[in-house]
Every structure is written in C-alpha cells, then in structure tokens.
Amino acid sequence: MEHSRLSVLISTYRPEGIAKVAAMNLPVAEGVDYVVSWQEHDDRPVPESLASRTDITIWRTSLSGLCNNRNNALDHAGGEIVLIADDDVTYTAERLQRVIEVFDSNPDADLISFMFEGSSKKYPRHMADLATPPTGFYLSSIEIAFRNSERTRCLRFNNAFGLGGTRFNSGEEDMLLLRARRHGLKCLFYPAIIARHEGISTGEASTATPKFLQSKGAVIAMCHPLTFPPRIMVNAWRESRRGRAPFFKAAANQLRGALYALRSKEIREYVKPTEQNSTSHEP
Q1: Among 121, 143, 194, 262, which is most buried by a count of CB atoms within 10 Å?
Q2: Backbone angles phi, psi at 72, to 5 degrees
Q3: Cα angle vertex 36, ends 31, 40, to 5°?
Q4: Per the structure, how many domains does the chain have?
Q5: Are 172 and 161 in contact (CB under 8 A)?
Q6: Could you read off the pLDDT of 37-75 as tens digits, one per residue?
Q7: Strand partners, 58
C-alpha cells in the first residue's frame, strides 16, 4: 500500500500459527497494514487468503522466542504507528481507526496503552500518564501501540523475557514500558477498547507459577532497585491472599528473579536511562 498510518504487528509460529492468522479475517482499513512475523514455518507456503492481499506482508524468521518474533515484525514495520498483536486477536476497521485518532489527538505521546475486551482485566477509568503507572496497572502486549520514528527506535523487546525467552517467561511488556520511560518517552494509558481477545492473561491465572513469580521479581527490581525487597514482600503477601501462591514460595521466587536481573549486565543495560534522562527513577 502507498502510505500506512498504522502497522499491526502479528507474531505467530509453526504452520498452525499462520493458519490462525488467516482465520483472523483481518479487516481492510484505510491507512492500515499488517506485518506478520512467522517462526518455525517449516518452509510451508503462505495461505492464499493472506498471500493475495496487498495490505499483508509475511516475514519469516529463524530466531526463537516471542520477543525476537515481535522485534522482527518491528524491524519490518512501515507505518507511522505500530500496534503489537497476536494471532488470536479480533479487530474491526473502526477500532483500528480509533488507534490512529487517539494518536492524532495526543501529538506529544510516544507510546499509548489501550484496552481489550474478552477478559476480566481491570483498567483505570480515565486517561493516565504512565510516567507513574496507577496502582495495580500492568500491560498486556496487545494493548501497546507507539510511534514508529527515530525517537522510538529504542523500543525493542528484551529476549531475556517473554515466552521462549532466555531466562523469564513473562514481563516483557513491563520492561518495554520501563525502557520507554527511562529514554524520556511520553507514555499514556487511554481508555478505549481496540480489540477482542478471549481468555485470561498470565497475571489473571488462578496459580502463579515459579517462572511467573521470578519474572515479576525481576521487573520489580528493575523498576525499584533501591526498594525492591519490601516491595517483593508486599507482592508475595498479595499473591498469598489471592490464593495464587504460598507467601514464602512467592517471596523466594521473586527474590530469585530480582537477584538474577540485578546481576545481569544485559538486563541492566536495557533499562539504563539515557544521558538526557539520567535522573533517578526511584519513587
């Protein structure tokens, strides 16, 4: 297409994954294109329903891990705005246009987090500045959109986190937001539904797995390097109160993740403030 205002970035893997993308029935929308990153493709052909469309491009990659998959899509995005997506999300043309409209109405915003329907996730009632996220706020990947410019070129996912990551199985969205904030980017939450996704997120599951808890600890330590121990204790208490994990199990796993992240040069460098935004981020 000649000019894309919005690129929807869909990550998928394996032959059954590309079939799921075809089943999404992606709407044709003015100024919108779709970039699909496909892992473990086994050299299978692209379904004709996708290959025949000029607003959809498929990029195969041999890299593993969800974050590498998302980064591959980001590297091939041509739209002025990018929207992170999965292969089981439902969109309408009107909702995708809404993403563009919100960015046009907030020209100073670099990254905007939206809402999706289909789960029990709770959201703030009003627009919020994510320089200091509201209590209990956490990101889901399919809510994230940001401008595709030199200013936001730093926004790539860290492959130590997320499904198939080298160390943690979640937390990549929170780390991306932290990186954005420490690079001085303007980040907002806007209360508009942009998609539908059935099912619960990791943060809503009835049981908090050790890997999830370790990921949570790593994120807490990176966000609050001076006060992470008491914050982890509070979070462990909350997990136990919700019946998702015993207190000591929750605390021990979070501390394990926190200590790993603090010792990891790769993770520390990822969230390191830029020179123009190098003041302390400790609340």
Answers
A1: 194
A2: -65, -40
A3: 180
A4: 2
A5: yes
A6: 999 999 999 999 999 999 999 999 999 999 999 999 999
A7: 36
Report which of 190, 30, 5, 167 is spatially closest to residue 100, judged by C-alpha positions: 5
The tens digit of pLDDT for each residue in 100-132 reads 999 999 999 999 999 999 988 899 999 999 999
Q: Which domain holds residue 256?
A: 205-277
Half-sphere exposure of 36 (CA within 13 A, CB side): 26
Alpha helices in 114-209 (DSSP H): 172-182
Contact between residue 147 and residue 232 where contact means Cβ atoms under 8 Å apart: no
Last-in-domain residue among 180, 201, 222 = 201
Q: Cβ(78)–Cβ(7) under 8 Å?
A: yes
**Which residue type does 196 have?**
R
Residue 98: inside a domain = yes
Residues 91 and 220 in one domain: no
Q: What is the CA radius of gyration of the chain?
A: 19
